[in-house]
Inverse folding.
């Protein structure tokens, strides 16, 4: 299997086409992530006694310590390189901070390509609150960054974020299914311009335009550069 097949460097967003867990390990990790999301929601919305919270903290500290004693893998490249956890796209589908089903930080965002339109759905709970009852504006921007990046699947030269310009039209409500739509605007050399819109109950809450630039030599050039840095004497 080639390096490109392992790391998915020809299109690092290909993970969005993969929804089932790669193996039982990821299925179990998704269960842990789901429990942590539930715990986070409870933490920011409940008021147990101080004694109860101290007891919960002690249990969680013990659990976290036990976790650290297991084998550790740092970074999605190394997860993929091990060969036992899926390719880069599959690993990204689990660990991405916005769309990873095994990452408790992620809402998560689910997105896909429908013809010439990118589509997505997301639901943000109380942990993501900014203005009262509304999703934090920075979270909205982060969701657009991930979603518009995924929309590059409609093209053939995926790149990295140059900028994201977000317009906030209405508040984005919490605990509501948010839908997203994205389309290519134009391509200029290595530059991809993509527009996206976010809706809640049919009302547009935000829109964004993103510029994504393919590195010289393509995405695989990033890995070559990283390997060179690792091998450079200090």
């Amino acid at each position: 299997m080639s390096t490109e097949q392992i790391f998915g460097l020809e299109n690092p967003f290909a993970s969005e086409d993969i929804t089932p867990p790669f193996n039982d390990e990821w299925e179990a990790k998704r269960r842990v992530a789901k429990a942590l999301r539930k715990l986070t929601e409870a933490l920011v919305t409940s008021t147990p006694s101080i004694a109860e919270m101290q007891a919960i903290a002690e249990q969680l500290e013990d659990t976290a310590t036990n976790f650290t004693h297991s084998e550790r893998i740092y970074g999605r490249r190394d997860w993929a390189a091990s060969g036992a956890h899926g390719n880069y796209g599959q690993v990204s589908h689990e660990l991405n901070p916005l769309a990873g089903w095994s990452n408790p930080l992620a809402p998560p965002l689910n997105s896909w390509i429908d013809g010439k339109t990118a589509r997505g759905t997301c639901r943000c709970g109380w942990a993501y609150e900014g203005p009262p009852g509304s999703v934090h504006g920075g979270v909205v921007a982060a969701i657009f960054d991930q979603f518009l990046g995924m929309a590059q699947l409609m093209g053939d030269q995926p790149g990295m974020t140059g900028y994201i310009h977000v317009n906030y039209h209405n508040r984005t409500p919490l605990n509501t299914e948010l839908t997203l739509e994205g389309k290519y605007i134009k391509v200029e050399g290595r530059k991809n311009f993509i527009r996206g819109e976010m809706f809640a109950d049919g009302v547009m809450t935000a829109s964004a335009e993103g510029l994504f630039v393919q590195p010289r030599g393509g995405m695989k050039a990033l890995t070559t550069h990283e390997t060179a840095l690792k091998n450079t004497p200090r």
